[in-house]
């Protein structure tokens, strides 16, 4: 029963991996498949593997996938255009034939009656596995330890980046800042913080300079690149709008600087 | 019994096609994991069929090896991404005729 | 003509059963002076080694000294060898007629399987005469060359080559087996190549040397095949063993052996059809020409035929072939001699003709062998004399060889003229001179053997009289035709003394026949001859020969001596003259028969190699390359493509498994 519920879910999720564009979605669908498999393990009298599947695969490996995904860009998605000519068609055809042949071939086989693991699992599945793992498979087990250590070392070597320049200290950074100021006239202090207004307290709105112009450097470059920076005068329009709604047709502010102050007072009054 | 093996075969085939059609190295890797899991499923199913735990042990070892493989594979993907700013398997195609 | 003579000859030849050549049975360990036999070869060989291998190692002030004294070493070695030969000859004279075959075993040359070839020497009556000729005339030529080559910067090397030449020839005549003979034979070929091409800076000299070498190789094939056949048939090549075995050997084998030996002899002795190298060989320095024509090289063929008498005596077909070749050659050479304006080439034509006489005599069997050798000796004297005389003339004429530029030189170089005249009288067979005796005997024997051959030989004698008189007249008589800047002068003593010595020998060489001495001397080697009664009394034949020669001389007198000789050879001449000037189209025949078919064969093979073999090889490589160019596209660098191939392979494996399990 469990199988017939889980199997369609698994196949659907697996097929989803083929078609979703975002890698994150693929990872989540894979998690579905893996957890389902874990349940199937439980059904098939393999509680130890059930636990390992959940903890190692879903818990560790998939999390590792997600970590890497975050590192290299979470929204990196495949384009739909196939670059290798004929690859997708051929892959589909060969894959279909392959699957068909496998399924047909397997369905021709009669497996006989299922022996079941009741006898093998007497005294618990985990002790039984431990018995066989530390006797019959002890050398393979030891070999895996070597493999894991090697993998750890390999990952470290691959991820390691040689430092080519000495580590910057606070003193050298300060010196560099002043040197930049002397040579290029770059401002040595921190960048101005974005605008903070009575009604708007937003990083996407530039601060206003004393002459009333917007300070471009106060907004993050990323926001500027996205084009989501709001301007202070637009904010002023909002104020005028509000004022009109509350029935105060007083003087229209000419500059954003002058309008900012009354707006604040308006806010305060509320 | 047959149904488990058939499911395993279907999952394996889907994994294969995924490896062949997806270009994001991470997704390709996930498809490889899918194939490994399909095999594990068959192992466990056969363990029950034959009434001994060798199949489960095999699946266990596959998991261990897969863990090691993932660690190294992801590290390689990271390294490639660091130098090429791309996670597409098609971009690493300089070794050719 | 050939067919006619062939059939006529066959009927008149003695049957093989009736002929018996004497067996050679040398006595080894004769002791005394005969133990020094090897020195005869070793002395000139040592000279060659010293001059060619040791002398170039000289350094510093030594170098100039070595270069200045090289010729003395060369000439000294030759003279020492001559003195030793003379001593040996005297010692041989002192022995009884039956003990005059002396052998000397030096060492085992090589031994493989049942074949054992020793470095054995055989000194008998024949070898003794050759030794005297080679070393004697060779020494005179060496001495002459001291003067002739005085201004040549490579004189040391020249003398080294001369010594090598003499050593090789001595090896040839002294060896007691055919392998050793072949060693000398090849040595002679090598030395002649080096000497003909001595002035290698001249393209014609280099080409002539190459031509002589290549044509000699053709003959050498014959000799080497003959040796191989001897090994196969008799298991040995020792003269002694072979001469004993031939009397009961297979007739066909003997005929083949004789023909192969004849081919070898044709190559070395410039007999038709391998004659064409001889005239070109005149490109070498004149002493070389003298050495080749008088003492060494061309006489080797005659020696080979005479030495192999034990084979030819029992192979009548081969003997007939010798006679035919010889007759054609003697006329061929004589005709060439009539048309050549180059004094050396005219003399070379006469050499060909005279060697033809010797071969003719050698082909006549035991009755002719002694006369072949006799004529060889007298010819060695007068031809060396005339060649050196021609060299002397050239020396005085700024190395001009064209007789049309000579004339009236008898006053300018009296010694050369007088000595040359002695040679001239000898070669035309003026009664009393050496050539008279030797040629007379050959023609007489030929007439006794076969009328056609005899008449042709007689005709050759007449032509000899014509062309030698023409040469004599154009060179020493008639009006002077030389250029204004040429000042003919007599040569130095070092050149004229050998000329005088050779002239004396030319005159007196006939004494060898006194009391039929040479016939008796050679009889143990060549066999006893049944006396054939000539068709006419001997005295009548002699008169006839003298008459024919006189006609030839008179013709030359009227055609050459009484007319003006143009400085340039006239172009509107008869076909016969043109043919003779072109060496009777010998080169053209070679071209048509051998060179062009060979060239086309080589061309065809080259084309086949290029188109067929190379085409197949390069074509297959092109196909593979083309396929690879297409196939390598499969390696497109995309991992996913490779994975697809992998999956397809897995599919195939699954299908195969299913097919096996379900079938």
Automatic annotation (TrEMBL), chain A:
Pfam families per the UniProt record, alphabetical: Oxidored_q3 (PF00499)
The protein's name: NADH-quinone oxidoreductase subunit J
Function: NDH-1 shuttles electrons from NADH, via FMN and iron-sulfur (Fe-S) centers, to quinones in the respiratory chain. Couples the redox reaction to proton translocation (for every two electrons transferred, four hydrogen ions are translocated across the cytoplasmic membrane), and thus conserves the redox energy in a proton gradient.
Topology in the lipid bilayer: Multi-pass membrane protein
NCBIfam families assigned to the protein according to its UniProt record, in alphabetical order: PRK06638.1-5 (NF005165)
Signal peptide: none
EC numbers for this chain: 7.1.1.-
Principal place of residence: membrane
Keywords in alphabetical order: Cell membrane, Membrane, NAD, Oxidoreductase, Quinone, Transmembrane, Transmembrane helix
Localisation: Cell membrane
Ranges for region Disordered: 240-270
UniProt key word Oxidoreductase: yes
Transmembrane segments: 5-20, 27-44, 50-72, 93-117, 137-159
Family: Belongs to the complex I subunit 6 family.
GO MF, one annotated term: NADH dehydrogenase (quinone) (non-electrogenic) activity
Enzyme class (EC, first level): translocase
Known catalytic reactions: a quinone + NADH + 5 H(+)(in) = a quinol + NAD(+) + 4 H(+)(out)
From TrEMBL, chain B:
Major location (coarse): membrane
Pfam families: Oxidored_q2 (PF00420)
GO molecular function, one term: NADH dehydrogenase (quinone) (non-electrogenic) activity
Catalytic activity: a quinone + NADH + 5 H(+)(in) = a quinol + NAD(+) + 4 H(+)(out)
Keyword Endoplasmic reticulum (UniProt): no
Residues passing through the membrane, by range: 6-21, 26-46, 58-81
Alphabetically ordered keywords of this record: Cell membrane, Membrane, NAD, Oxidoreductase, Quinone, Translocase, Transmembrane, Transmembrane helix, Transport
Matching Gene3D superfamilies: 1.10.287.3510
Topology term for the membrane: Multi-pass membrane protein
Residues making up the signal peptide according to the UniProt record: none
Subcellular location, record wording: Cell membrane; Membrane
The EC number(s) this enzyme carries: 7.1.1.-
Subunit note: NDH-1 is composed of 14 different subunits. Subunits NuoA, H, J, K, L, M, N constitute the membrane sector of the complex.
Entry function: NDH-1 shuttles electrons from NADH, via FMN and iron-sulfur (Fe-S) centers, to quinones in the respiratory chain. The immediate electron acceptor for the enzyme in this species is believed to be a menaquinone. Couples the redox reaction to proton translocation (for every two electrons transferred, four hydrogen ions are translocated across the cytoplasmic membrane), and thus conserves the redox energy in a proton gradient.
UniProt similarity note: Belongs to the complex I subunit 4L family.
PANTHER family referenced in this protein's UniProt entry, alphabetically: NADH DEHYDROGENASE SUBUNIT 4L-RELATED (PTHR11434:SF21), NADH-UBIQUINONE OXIDOREDUCTASE SUBUNIT ND4L (PTHR11434)
Protein's name according to its UniProt entry: NADH-quinone oxidoreductase subunit K
Protein source organism: Nocardioides astragali
Gene: nuoK
């Amino acid at each position: 029963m469990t199988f017939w519920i889980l199997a369609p879910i698994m196949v659907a999720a697996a097929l989803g991996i083929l078609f979703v564009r975002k890698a994150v979605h693929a990872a989540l669908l894979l998690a579905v498949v893996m957890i389902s498999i874990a349940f199937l393990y439980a059904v098939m009298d393999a509680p130890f593997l059930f636990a390992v599947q959940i903890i190692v695969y879903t818990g560790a490996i998939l999390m590792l996938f997600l970590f890497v995904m975050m590192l290299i860009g979470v929204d990196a998605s495949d384009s739909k255009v196939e670059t290798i000519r004929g690859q997708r068609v051929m892959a589909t055809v060969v894959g279909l034939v392959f699957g068909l042949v496998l399924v047909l071939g397997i369905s021709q086989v009669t497996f006989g009656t299922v022996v079941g693991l009741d006898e093998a699992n007497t005294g618990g599945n985990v002790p039984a596995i431990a018995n066989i793992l530390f006797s019959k498979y002890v050398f393979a087990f030891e070999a895996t330890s070597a493999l894991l250590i090697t993998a750890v070392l390999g990952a470290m070597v691959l991820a390691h980046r040689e430092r080519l320049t000495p580590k910057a200290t606070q003193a050298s950074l300060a010196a560099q800042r002043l040197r930049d100021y002397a040579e290029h006239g770059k401002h040595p202090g921190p960048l101005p913080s974005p605008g903070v207004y009575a009604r708007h307290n937003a990083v996407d709105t530039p601060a206003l300079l004393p002459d009333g112009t917007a300070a471009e450097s106060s907004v993050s470059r990323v926001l500027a690149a996205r084009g989501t920076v709001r301007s202070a005068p637009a904010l002023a329009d909002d104020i005028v709008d509000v004022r009109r709604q509350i029935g105060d047709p007083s003087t229209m502010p000419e500059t954003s600087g002058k309008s900012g102050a009354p707006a604040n007072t308006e806010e305060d009054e509320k | 019994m047959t149904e488990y093996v058939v499911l395993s075969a279907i999952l394996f085939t889907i994994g294969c096609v995924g490896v062949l059609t997806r270009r994001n190295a991470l997704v390709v890797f996930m498809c490889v994991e899918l194939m490994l899991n399909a095999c594990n499923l068959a192992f466990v199913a056969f363990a029950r069929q034959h009434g001994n735990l060798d199949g489960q042990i095999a699946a266990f070892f596959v998991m261990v090896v897969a863990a090691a493989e993932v660690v190294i594979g992801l590290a390689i993907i990271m390294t490639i991404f660091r130098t090429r700013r791309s996670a597409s398997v098609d971009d690493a195609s300089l070794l050719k005729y | 003509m050939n067919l006619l003579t062939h059939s006529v000859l066959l009927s008149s030849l003695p049957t093989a059963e009736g002929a018996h050549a004497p067996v050679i049975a040398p006595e080894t360990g004769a002791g005394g002076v005969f133990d020094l036999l090897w020195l005869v070869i070793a002395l000139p060989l040592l000279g060659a080694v010293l001059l060619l291998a040791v002398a170039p190692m000289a350094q510093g002030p030594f170098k100039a000294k070595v270069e200045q004294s090289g010729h003395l070493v060369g000439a000294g070695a030759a003279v020492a060898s001559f003195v030793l030969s003379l001593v040996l000859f005297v010692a041989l004279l002192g022995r009884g007629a039956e003990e005059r075959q002396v052998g000397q075993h030096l060492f085992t040359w090589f031994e493989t399987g049942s074949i054992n070839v020793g470095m054995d020497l055989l000194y008998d009556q024949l070898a003794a005469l050759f030794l005297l000729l080679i070393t004697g005339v060779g020494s005179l030529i060496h001495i002459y060359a001291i003067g002739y080559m005085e201004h040549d910067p490579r004189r040391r090397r020249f003398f080294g080559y001369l010594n090598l030449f003499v050593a090789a020839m001595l090896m040839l005549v002294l060896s007691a087996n055919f392998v050793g003979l072949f060693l000398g034979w090849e040595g002679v070929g090598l030395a002649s190549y080096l000497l003909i091409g001595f002035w290698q800076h001249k393209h014609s000299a280099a080409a002539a040397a190459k031509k002589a070498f290549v044509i000699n190789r053709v003959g050498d094939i014959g000799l080497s095949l003959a040796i191989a056949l001897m090994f196969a048939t008799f298991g040995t090549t020792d003269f002694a063993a072979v001469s004993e075995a031939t009397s009961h050997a297979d007739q066909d084998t003997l005929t083949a052996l004789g023909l192969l030996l004849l081919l070898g002899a044709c190559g070395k002795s410039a007999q038709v059809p391998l004659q064409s190298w001889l005239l070109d060989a005149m490109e070498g320095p004149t002493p070389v020409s003298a050495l080749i024509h008088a003492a060494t090289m061309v006489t080797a063929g005659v020696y080979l035929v005479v030495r192999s008498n034990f084979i030819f005596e029992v192979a009548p077909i081969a003997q007939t072939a010798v006679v035919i070749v010889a007759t054609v050659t003697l006329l061929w050479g004589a005709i060439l001699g009539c048309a050549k304006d180059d004094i050396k080439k005219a003399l070379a034509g006469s050499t060909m003709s005279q060697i033809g006489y010797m071969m003719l005599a050698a082909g006549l069997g035991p009755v002719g062998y002694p006369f072949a050798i006799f004529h060889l000796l007298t010819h060695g004297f007068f031809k060396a004399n005339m060649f050196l005389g021609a060299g002397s003339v050239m020396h005085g004429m700024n190395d001009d060889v064209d007789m049309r530029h000579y004339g009236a030189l008898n006053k300018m170089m009296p010694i050369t003229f007088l000595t040359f005249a002695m040679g001239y009288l000898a070669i035309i067979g003026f009664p009393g001179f050496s050539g008279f005796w030797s040629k007379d005997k050959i023609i007489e024997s030929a007439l006794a053997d076969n009328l056609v051959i005899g008449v042709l030989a007689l005709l050759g004698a007449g032509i000899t009289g014509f062309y030698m008189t023409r040469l004599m007249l154009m060179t020493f008589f008639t009006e002077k035709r030389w250029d204004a800047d040429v000042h003919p002068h007599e040569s130095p003593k070092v050149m004229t003394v050998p000329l005088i010595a050779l002239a004396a020998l030319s005159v007196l060489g006939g004494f060898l026949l006194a009391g039929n001495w040479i016939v008796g001397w050679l009889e143990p080697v060549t066999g006893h001859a049944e006396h054939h009664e000539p068709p006419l009394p001997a005295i009548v034949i002699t008169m006839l020969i003298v008459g024919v020669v006189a006609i030839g001389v008179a013709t030359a007198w009227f055609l050459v001596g009484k007319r003006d000789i143009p400085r340039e050879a006239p172009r509107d001449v008869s076909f016969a003259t043109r043919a003779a000037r072109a060496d009777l189209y010998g080169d053209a025949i070679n071209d048509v028969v051998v060179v062009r078919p060979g060239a086309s064969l080589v061309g065809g093979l080259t084309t086949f190699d290029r188109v067929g073999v190379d085409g197949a090889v390069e074509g297959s490589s092109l196909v593979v390359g083309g396929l690879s160019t297409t196939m390598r596209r499969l390696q497109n660098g995309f991992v996913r493509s490779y994975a697809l191939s992998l999956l397809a392979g897995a599919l195939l494996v699954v299908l195969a498994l299913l097919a096996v399990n379900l079938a």
